[in-house]
Amino acid sequence: MSDRKYDLIIIGAGPGGYLAAERAGAIGKKTLLIEKDKALGGVCLNKGCIPTKALLNSAKIFYSAQNSQQLGISVSGVEYDLKKAMEWKAKAVSTLTKGVEYQMKRHKVEVISGIAKIEKPNEVAVGSEKYTTENIIVATGSSPVKLSIAGSDKPHVLTSDELLEIKKLPKDLVIIGGGVIGIEFASYFSMLGTNVTIVELLPEILPNFDKEISALMRTALKQCRFILGAKVISIEDNKVSFITDDKMEYCQADIVLMAVGRKPNVENLGLENINVDFDNRGIKVNDRMQTNIPKVYAVGDVTGKSLLAHSAYRMGEVAVNNIFLQKDKMRYNAIPWVVYSYPELSGVGLTEEQAKKEGRNVKVSSLQMRTNGRFVAEHGNEKGICKVIVDADSNVLLGVTLLGGLNSEIIYGAAAMIEDEFRVKDIKDIIFPHPTVSEIIKDAIWELN
Ligand code: NAI
Question: What mean pLDDT comes out for the span 326-331?
């Protein structure tokens, strides 16, 4: 039995866990990070954000090479080599996971490989080894949900984890679920020439976003077929059957992606040993990331609060600050989100619908991207829109949504404005660089009436 004692034990080395470890190590706290997988970095680095971005970029370049005649570029013999694209993706992943290993060494964080189980509020076991600690952070992430319908265990029915490892491009891909994962993969495969069908249960894709913009996104992904308001009944070897408008129909599929959400990893952690309050929606935490048990914290997807890597980063920081430094609070109102399809969709704050539901008086302005100089110069007639929502009583900015081109690098500006409660006048006073797509935010503000 080990007699090692720690200031902090962190379970799970995804963005929430490794960032918390880095911050605690950096202030000299004796920190142990326990990870069950071989590589550090969690879903984000190994099976999520990073690998999908590597592949999506390769597809965008392939698609542009074939579709840029109007810019004076004609290329023949363009080919997509999936094996090479996968190697590029693997290299990006390994560079970054090694970067996390380096950061752990640099901040003297001890890392061990194994499955951690909480035995007591101050004791964690890995196999027969026991480790004692002053504090625990649970950062075990989430896993894809699989529908339990006939045929869902067939080998061609994949989650996003397995789809990132395929060896051959599918001819016909059916995606069950038109959420963030569904749309990113729809964009990737359709740019490569796969026939993509998205079957969504609700009347519109991306149901948590601005309805008008979700519909516009659907028309922007013109190569894809969308079947809305449809319930999948069964999956056979090469077809997916669903009910829509009370009729049974089917579509062709050589691969089926299940993208119907993710569930927090709360099982087999020993949470019940110390009576941590949790259910299948996640571990309950307050805004300091504390569970109901003093000195036991939870961060990231396992809390079920905001399933985004950047939310997990901030939650990790908030937990470490509360444990070792000063009081800190997690705020959820200015967390930006991005759908990395082509075109990209990003946003922050409230949609018009959400603001109205909160009982707010709102002013809304929508401006087409074709009014923006940089966008027209680079993207011509492509679809795009910027929508801003302002509180009509206080003139404080409440929400921004952008669709069109590559806007993911812009949205943090709007997040800063919302975090700092910028008013209309403050935004009008900012000088934006010209020509940039970011100017659309200021122009949309001027269009408010
Ligand atoms: P999601 O919750 O975004 O979307 C799931 C979709 O599946 C919804 O549209 C839902 O109506 C639909 N659905 C549910 N049951 C269905 C059924 N039986 N048949 C057809 N459709 C059904 O979940 P998703 O896309 O799996 O993503 C999981 C999480 O990962 C999300 O919270 C997301 O924010 C996060 N994520 C974030 C990314 C980003 O920030 N770029 C990228 C990938 C994932």
Answer: 97
